[in-house]
Amino acid sequence: MLGEATILFQIAGIGIIVAMIHTILKQMGKEDIAHFATVVGFIIVMIIVIDEIANLFQQIKSVFLFQG
Amino acid sequence: MEIFQIVSLGVVASLLFILLKDQKSSLAFILILITGIFIFLSVIQQIAEVFSLISNLGKKASINGIYIETILKIIGIAYIADFGAHITRDAGLSSVAAKIELAGKIFILVLAVPILTAVIETILGFLPV
Lengths: 68, 129
Hints:
The complex is a heterodimer. By secondary structure, chain A is mainly alpha-helical. Chain A has one domain. Chain A is 93% helix and 0% strand. Chain A has 2 helices and no strands. The mean pLDDT of chain A is 86. Chain B folds into 2 domains: 1-46; 64-128. Helices cover 89% and strands 0% of the residues of chain B. Chain B has helices spanning 2-21, 25-60, 65-90, 94-126. In chain B, helix 1 (2-21) runs antiparallel to helix 2. Chain B is elongated, with a radius of gyration of 20 Å. The relative contact order of chain B is 0.07. The chains are: A mainly alpha, B mainly alpha. Chains A and B meet through helix 1 and helix 2 of A and helix 1, helix 2 and helix 3 of B.
């Protein structure tokens, strides 16, 4: 359970950092770089999520669908 | 006790969700998705034990393996459809959630067909035709 909590906090941290970077870059006037940074942060989080979803589906397949 | 960890994980995740909701609602939704996955992953071992118990009892009672297997598949499909439907409903797309539930029901029906035919045939066998 501890490992999962850390991943949760990592995602929240990435979200907050990306939001801060976005606002800072917007004030500096570099609007497009801000959007670019947001997209990069989003991609990082998506990679983490996709690993977890793959893990979940693998577990479900092994428990429900094949071991009758 | 595992239940305390799960409850605390849920509370922490909901707090983080509220924190992230205003700035980055997309990441907040991903947070909910991850929490649902983690809570299920922490429970799946117990589910596996219960299912192995059920299948052992089925073997002992010499019930045909197909029935037990179909029941477990139906439970699995029901759970996944329910998981997906609630996640999409959290995201605010209740129409997509309804479609997912419809698909889940249809798959379960398709799986239940052989059992229904078996039951009907046995009943017809009893009737003095």
